[in-house]
Design a protein that fits this description.
This protein has about 350 residues and is α/β, with parallel strands linked by helices. The protein has 2 domains: about 1-140 and about 305-340, Alpha-Beta Complex (Quinone Oxidoreductase, Chain A, domain 1); about 150-285, Rossmann fold (3-Layer(aba) Sandwich). Helix content is about 30%, strand content about 25%. Strand 14 (about 250-260), helix 9 (about 270-275) and strand 15 (about 280-285) form a beta-alpha-beta unit. Helix 4 packs across helix 10. It binds zinc ion (2 copies). One zinc ion (ZN) binds near residues 37 and 39.
Length: about 350
């Protein structure tokens, strides 16, 4: 089988490997689609602390079960599946409550374990989620980022009628926007930069009531204007920039909640503003079991548009172009997939 291997930072090779053996509780899955995440670029650039190389990335993927171990009863060969990519210890206090993303011994396919940028993968059968016939394998590949977006919206606790601001019209932001829309907000404002015009137009089609395409410094005033000077009830920061986190704090209204999903560096926190506005600031990293299952169910119901987000497809041999296009935001890319 072929697989991509990041041998060391900035060094990607397409390698030939033997198809891995399966254990009693495992399944061998032939990968159908594996979408490229911003995090994969951190693997490529050496930006993930403590990660040891070589790595086969890919933590957002789907496939068809080829073979199952002797003890597997829940899936059969031929099943089309979305694959849950976290392997947690199962026994710590976080795991017992389903908060697998907080497990101290967490391992993730595509990071510490081989990922989906290859032709086959072995996964515990319990991690496979069979999908409906009407749901495509390409859509199923995007269950993992959907779970992340679902978790962000869950953490925000959006109530009907509230004003909601989503900062960052990337793939996660556009998914967050759609899950937020399902909570019936009164206003759903999507904020991006001038270069994001195309993505903001997609966001408008997907349910944003207003879009803002301005440099960060100018966005604050515009969002406050759009919210009648009050600021937003909920701000979901999915932009991965320090300035965007500052913007999130600035545009949150009294009693507002901010969820920070996109990373960044250190920001000054105006304590008087935090106190007077009685803000709640929450971080969100990854997802938990219920988020994955819920996101898949909602996605299969047709209420979330995934096809519009998948703009590019590449063969494994085209890895250089795939990482170039997604890394540089070329050719109107939103999400790209490897289709081995
Ligand atoms: Zn990801
Ligand atoms: Zn654990």
């Amino acid at each position: 089988m072929q697989a991509l291997s990041v041998v060391a930072p900035h060094q990607v090779e397409l390698v030939e490997r033997v198809v891995p053996e399966i254990g009693d509780g495992d399944a061998l899955v032939r990968i159908a689609a594996a979408t490229i995440c911003h995090t994969d670029h951190y693997i490529l650039s050496g930006g993930i602390p403590g990660l040891s190389y070589p790595v086969t990335p890919g933590h957002e993927f789907s496939g068809v079960v080829k073979e199952v171990g002797a003890g597997v009863t829940q899936v059969k060969p031929g099943a089309r599946v979305a694959v849950e990519t976290y392997l947690s210890c199962g026994g710590c206090r976080h795991c017992r409550r389903g908060r697998i993303n907080l497990c101290a011994d967490l391992q993730e396919m595509g990071f510490q374990l081989p990922g989906g940028f290859g032709q086959y993968i072995v996964a515990p059968a319990a991690k496979l989620h069979p999908i409906e016939d009407s749901f495509s394998l390409e859509e199923a590949a995007m269950t993992e980022p959907s779970a992340n977006a679902h978790a962000v919206v869950r953490r925000a606790g959006i109530e009907a009628g509230q004003s909601v601001v989503v900062i960052g019209p990337g793939p996660i932001g556009l998914l967050v926007l759609q899950y937020a829309r399902l909570r019936d907000p009164g206003q759903l404002i999507l904020v991006g930069l001038p270069r994001d015009e195309d993505r903001l137009a997609v966001g408008k089609r997907l349910g944003a009531t207003d879009t803002v395409a301005l440099p960060v410094e100018a966005a604050e005033e515009r969002v406050l204007e759009l919210t009648g000077g009050l600021g937003a009830d909920r701000v979901l920061q999915c932009a991965g920039s320090t300035r965007a986190a500052e913007l999130a704090l600035a545009v949150a209204g009294v009693n507002g909640t901010i969820v920070i999903e996109g990373g960044g560096d250190t920001i000054p926190l105006a304590l008087n503003g935090l106190i007077q506005k009685q803000l709640t600031v929450r971080g969100m990293c990854g997802w938990s079991f219920p988020d994955f299952a819920a996101a898949l169910q909602i996605n299969q119901s047709g209420r979330i548009e995934l096809r519009a987000l998948l703009t590019h497809r590449f063969a494994l041999e085209e890895h250089a172009a795939a990482f170039e296009v997604t890394g540089q935001y070329r050719d109107g890319v939103i999400k790209a997939a490897f289709v081995p």
